[in-house]
Design a protein that fits this description.
The protein is α+β, with helices and mostly antiparallel strands and about 475 residues long. It has helices at about 80-90, 150-160, 175-190, 380, 390-395, 420-425, 435-440, 445-460; strands at about 10, 15, 30-35, 35-40, 40-45, 65-75, 95-100, 105-115, 130, 140, 160-165, 165, 200-205, 220, 245-250, 255-260, 280, 285, 295-300, 305, 320-325, 330-335, 340-345, 385-390. The strands form eight sheets. A six-stranded mixed sheet has the order 20-19-21-22-23-24. Strands 5-6-8-7 form a four-stranded mixed sheet, with no helix packed on it. A hairpin with a 5-residue loop joins strand 9 and strand 10.
Length: about 475
């Protein structure tokens, strides 16, 4: 699902939106929990009279998503205006009171939006809009950080474009002047200022054999001379797997520069497109995109206190959703074909013993099951490393009933049978790339085969090959 995120995000898949021209309120510092959901209310006192809350979402055709706005009124007394609250701040005037105590009122307004069955076609133009540079070349940015486009898809998209009768290609950058122009075009015209720090863009550079090159011999898709380069320090490094393609990375401390990447990665999104057949996220089955490039902040104890997308990604794992927690800790969500892996990356992971709804096999004390089927005891050594299998584990985030405002939501106890199954399915193994390739040989599409090999090697679970 793709969203136009304006104001804030809540756990359980609920998001709050406001019209850009009448942006409503700000996020308060107080987190609330109702029925197992994270609620981070907006504040009435910061709203302008006459402003409107407009709930927006663009789910995939035929799919539904619930979007909500939450409103906290600090005092019910002087200046209280039921009419204003009930009709003045929403497009349909149906805010309802969901909690009230001591003069503090929490109100909500929700709407279910169904995606159009047939998406409206984009207008076609022979001489499309874009930027004509002084070098005589025409540039157009087809997709950026919010997208889910592989290098091959980006190449095909570029070649399908025309400008005044001429076919396009993935951008080639042959001089510093052209590099500056392309970087400026992408960051200034395409990506909102708060999102530039997590932007990556494919370019037409490769050493893949299918394009006439060989490993270590880099060239442009057009065949023009490779004479100018703008690699980030330490790049290209082919980190860990076949990195045959290149991207402009805006997330480094060195400014915009190039790095190499695997073609099946979804640049600027949570890895990878092959995980989209199904995925459980925030208690809902998601069959299209995860919230793209999810960045968030959590308060220890399990309350979602801030959601934003402006965190610098330098040095962090690009193909994962990352939630920062506390001052240094972070949760890393990695989406694979048949499960989600969740790591806590710091030395104080036992703080999560009262975290909300990270559902998997664990004890009521919060112990997590490791790959060997045994509970992880020493969290300071191993952190939290556990996996969620949707067909057996249900949802990643569990709606825990009975929680009340300002009370910690307590993690539910483990259920019968899950420990033994997980131990069999995710037992320790040693799978190298050669073994994984043999297991994935039934796949004819080279991109699918690469992704299959990556899943198997990354998870050390040979049985994953059979799911492709």
């Amino acid at each position: 699902m793709s969203y136009t995120l304006i104001q804030d995000t809540f756990g359980n898949g609920v998001q709050a939106f406001a019209d850009r021209d009448n942006q409503y309120g700000r996020v308060s510092g107080e987190a609330m929990c109702e029925g197992g959901r994270y609620l981070q209310p907006l504040e009435y006192k910061h709203a302008r009279r006459g402003s409107k809350i407009v709930l927006k979402a663009t789910p995939k055709a035929g799919k539904q998503v619930t979007v909500c706005a939450f409103l906290k009124v600090a005092h019910r007394g002087v200046g209280w205006d039921d009419t204003l609250l009930q009709s003045g701040f929403s497009e349909s005037g149906d805010f309802r009171i969901v909690y009230e105590t001591g003069g503090i009122i929490l109100m909500s307004y929700c709407k279910v939006i169904t995606g159009d069955e047939v998406a409206a076609p984009l207008p076609e133009s022979v001489c499309a809009s874009g930027t004509l540079a002084t070098n005589g070349h025409f540039y157009e940015v087809a997709q950026y950080v919010r997208g889910t486009m592989t290098w091959h898809e980006a190449k095909a998209t570029a070649e399908a474009k025309t400008h005044c009768g001429k076919s396009g290609h993935l951008v080639t950058i042959t001089s510093k002047g052209e590099s500056d122009h392309v970087n400026g075009l992408i960051s200034a015209e395409t990506c909102p200022r708060e999102e530039r720090a997590i932007l990556q863009t494919w370019i037409g550079l490769t050493d893949a054999e299918e394009y006439g090159y060989k490993e270590g011999t880099i060239g442009w898709v057009t065949g023009e001379p490779f004479e100018f380069e703008n690699w980030c320090p330490g790049e290209p490094n082919a980190s860990g797997r076949s990195h045959d393609f290149a991207e402009i990375n805006f997330s480094t401390s060195y400014g915009a520069c190039w790095d190499d990447a695997a073609g099946q990665e979804n640049v600027g999104d949570s890895n990878d497109k092959y995980a989209k057949e199904w995925l459980w996220f925030n208690g809902k089955e998601v069959t299209s995109d995860l919230p793209a490039g999810t960045w968030g902040r959590q308060q220890l104890g399990g309350f979602l206190v801030r959601y934003k997308e402006s965190t610098v990604r330098a040095g962090l794992i690009r193909d994962a959703d990352i939630y920062f927690v506390g001052s240094k800790e972070k949760l890393i969500f990695k989406a694979f074909k048949s499960f989600i892996r969740i790591d806590v990356d710091w030395k104080h992971s036992e703080n999560y013993k009262n975290a909300v709804g990270l559902l998997g096999s664990y004890s009521h004390q919060g112990e997590r099951l490791g790959r060997d089927g045994q509970f992880i005891k020493d969290t300071n050594t191993f952190g939290l490393d556990w996996q969620v299998i949707p067909e057996t584990d249900g949802s990643l985030f569990h709606s825990y009933e009975g929680a009340v405002v300002n009370q910690k939501c307590i993690m539910p106890a483990s259920y019968e049978g899950s420990t033994a199954l997980r131990g069999r399915r995710l037992g320790t193994s040693s799978v190298d790339e050669g073994v994984a390739e043999k297991a994935c040989n039934h796949l004819l599409d080279p991109d699918e085969k690469k992704a299959c090999v990556f899943d198997v090697v990354a998870t050390q679970d040979l049985s994953l090959a059979s799911t492709w």
